[in-house]
Amino acid sequence: MNQNDLRVKKTRKNIENAFISLLREKDFHKITIQDILDRALINRSTFYKHYMDKYQLAEILCDEVFEFLKAAVRERFDCDTTEHILMVLKPMYQILSDRKEEILALFTIHTESIHLYEDMYDFLQKSFYERQKMTNRKSLELLDYLSDLYAALVLTAMKWCLKNEGYEELTRHTQLFMHLKKVFDYPGE
Q1: pLDDT tens sequence across 118-157
Q2: How far is Cα 62 from Cα 114, in angstroms, rounded to an integer?
Q3: Scanning 19, 45, 128, 186, which has the fewest C-beta atoms within 10 Å of its C-beta?
Q4: CA 68, CA 123: separation in Å to the nearest integer?
Q5: Got the DSSP string for 73-119?
Q6: How far is CA 93 from CA 70, 76, 169, in A?
């Protein structure tokens, strides 16, 4: 099967959209292949030409979102001014807005191997910790706490934006985040 064939791409997108739609209605564990087939209006053999099972489908979608979010976080960490942050965040917010239903739906999946929200939390926490460890004189214990706080803050803001179309509102509060960054960066001694 040629992955670049337009029919293949349309079929995969149809299956993915059906799956995301079902995730908004019911728990991942209760979704059956038949549910996906009925929603996508395809037959069983068509589904299995593209995916082994619903777990592979979920993993592929989560991996794609996770890679985008990781790249965005890395780019954000390279920013040093408010203007630069806004320049980086604006296109990221647009992509998040365009994919909000998908991301919120994927955040609800919690299996032994599929856990996008937790993966993102861990990535944010570790990335912040490593970056601050190199430039900060705070104790590692305090840095561990601040890293957890950072990850929670970013994910809470992201979920709020996704649920409330709050990208512009959050952009106006960039100064608050920059102030928090200063608190993180400079130890109070």
Answers
A1: 999 999 999 989 888 877 666 777 888 889 998 998 898 8
A2: 8
A3: 45
A4: 12
A5: HHHHHT--SHHHHHHHHHHHHHHHHHTHHHHHHHHT---SS--HHHH
A6: 14, 12, 11
